[in-house]
C-alpha cells in the first residue's frame, strides 16, 4: 500500500522555501544518473504487499526533510531503523532496502539528508556529486535530521526505544558519526563508509571530524562491513579504526570481506557481490537482535 504523504505537517512559520531545494524524493526519477546503467540481472526487487510505504515529511527546525518510509500494514510500536543513503540519494534501491526491513517487522525511514543543497539524481559524475553536495552537508545538520526522523517515527507507530541505523558509503560514515552522537542508539551497521580522512575526502569546515576520532568514546555497538578490494576505503584505514574501537567499550567490530569491492551490497551495481552481501545482511539482522534493536 503506497502512502505518499506530501502535506502531513503544516508549513513552519517563517519557512523560506528556497532553503529546501528538494521537496520530494519521487519527483527526480528512479535512479541517479551517476549510477547508470543499472545491473538489472542482479537487482533484487521487494514488493510492498502487506506494507504501508511511500513518502513522508520529517519536520526539522528550518522546514521539512522528505523521506521514504516503509512499515508493516498492521501493528504499532515497530522497531525503527534509519537507512542512510549513498551519494546517489533516496533512489529505488534505498527504498527497496527499506521495504526489506519492513517485511521483517521494522519501520524503516530514509531521510533525504541532501534536501537543502539540491537534487542529486541528474548529476552524472560521482566526484561532482561529492564536491557539490555531499562534502558540504554539515555533520551537525545530518545528526539533527536523523534525530528528527526518530522523533517523527515515535509519533507515527514507531518505537521510542528500539532504534537502529544503517547506511551505505557516504551513509556508512554517517552511521559511525551518529553512533557517536546518540548514546541511546541500540545498534548500527555501517557499510563501507569512510572512517579516516583521505586525499579524495578530507575533513573540512562542514565535516571537521572523522569516525576514528570518536571510536574510543563511542557507546552504541556498530558493526562495519568493508571490502578487501576497495581502493577508496583501504584495509589499512579500516584496521586503524578497528584498533581504536578495541580501546573503547562499545563492543563494535568490523568485518572485511576479502573478495568484495566497494558497494558490494548494492545489487543494482556491477560491484555487487552476492556472497558477501548475503552474509553481511544476516550478520546485520543478528547484530540488531542481539543488541535490542529488534
Features:
294 residues, alpha/beta, 8-stranded mixed sheet, 6 helices, 8 strands, disordered N terminus
Question: Element order, helices and strands?
Answer: EEEHEHHEHEEHEH
Uncertain regions: pLDDT < 50 for 5+ in a row? 2-18
Mean pLDDT: 92
The largest beta-sheet arranges its strands as: 1-2-4-3-5-6-7-8
Number of helices: 6
Could you tell me the number of beta strands? 8
N/C terminus separation = 23 Å
Largest sheet: 8 strands, mixed
> Helix content range of the residues, please?
25-40%
- Radius of gyration equals 18 Å
Give the CA-based shape.
globular
Structural category is alpha/beta
Give the DSSP E fraction (strand runs of 2 or more residues).
15-25%
Summarize the structure.
The chain contains six helices and eight strands, in the order βββαβααβαββαβα. It is an alpha/beta fold and 294 residues long. Strand 5, helix 4 and strand 6 form a beta-alpha-beta unit.
Description:
The protein has about 290 residues and is an alpha/beta fold. About 25% of the residues lie in helices and about 20% in strands. The chain has 6 helices and 8 strands. The chain has helices spanning about 90-105, 125-130, 140-155, 170-180, 235-245, 275-290, and strands at about 50-60, 65-70, 80-85, 105-110, 160-170, 185-190, 220-225, 255. It has an 8-stranded mixed beta sheet, sandwiched between helices. Helix 5 links the parallel strand 7 and strand 8 (about 255). Residues about 1-20 have low confidence and may be disordered.
Amino acid at each position: 500500500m503506497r502512502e505518499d504523504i506530501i502535506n502531513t505537517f503544516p508549513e513552519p512559520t517563517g519557512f523560506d522555501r528556497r532553503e529546501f531545494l528538494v521537496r520530494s524524493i519521487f519527483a527526480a526519477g528512479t535512479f541517479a544518473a551517476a549510477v547508470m546503467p543499472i545491473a538489472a540481472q542482479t537487482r533484487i526487487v521487494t514488493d510492498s504487499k502487506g506494507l504501508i510505504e511511500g513518502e513522508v515529511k520529517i519536520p526539522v527546525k528550518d522546514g521539512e526533510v522528505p523521506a521514504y518510509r516503509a512499515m508493516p500494514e498492521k501493528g504499532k510500536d515497530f522497531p525503527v531503523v534509519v537507512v542512510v543513503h549513498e551519494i546517489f540519494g533516496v533512489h529505488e534501491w534505498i527504498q527497496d532496502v527499506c521495504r526489506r526491513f519492513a517485511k521483517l517487522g521494522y519501520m524503516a525511514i530514509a531521510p533525504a539528508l541532501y534536501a537543502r543543497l539540491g537534487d542529486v539524481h541528474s548529476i552524472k559524475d560521482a566526484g561532482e556529486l561529492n564536491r557539490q553536495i555531499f562534502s558540504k552537508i554539515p555533520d551537525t545538520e545530518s545528526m539533527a535530521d536523523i534525530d528528527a526522523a526518530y522523533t517523527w517515527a515515535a509519533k507515527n507507530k514507531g518505537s521510542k526505544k528500539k532504534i537502529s541505523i544503517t547506511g551505505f558509503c557516504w551513509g556508512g560514515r554517517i552511521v559511525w558519526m551518529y553512533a557517536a552522537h546518540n548514546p541511546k542508539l541500540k545498534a548500527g551497521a555501517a557499510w563501507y563508509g569512510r572512517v579516516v580522512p583521505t586525499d579524495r575526502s578530507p575533513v573540512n569546515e562542514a565535516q571537521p571530524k572523522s569516525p576514528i576520532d570518536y571510536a574510543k568514546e563511542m557507546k552504541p555497538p556498530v558493526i562495519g562491513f568493508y571490502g578487501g578490494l576497495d581502493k577508496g576505503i583501504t584495509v589499512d584505514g579500516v584496521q586503524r579504526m578497528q584498533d581504536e574501537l578495541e580501546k573503547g567499550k562499545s563492543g563494535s567490530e568490523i568485518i572485511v570481506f576479502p573478495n568484495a569491492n566497494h558497494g558490494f551490497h548494492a545489487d543494482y551495481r556491477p560491484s555487487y557481490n552476492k556472497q558477501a552481501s548475503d552474509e553481511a545482511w544476516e550478520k546485520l539482522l543478528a547484530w540488531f537482535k542481539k543488541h535490542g534493536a529488534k
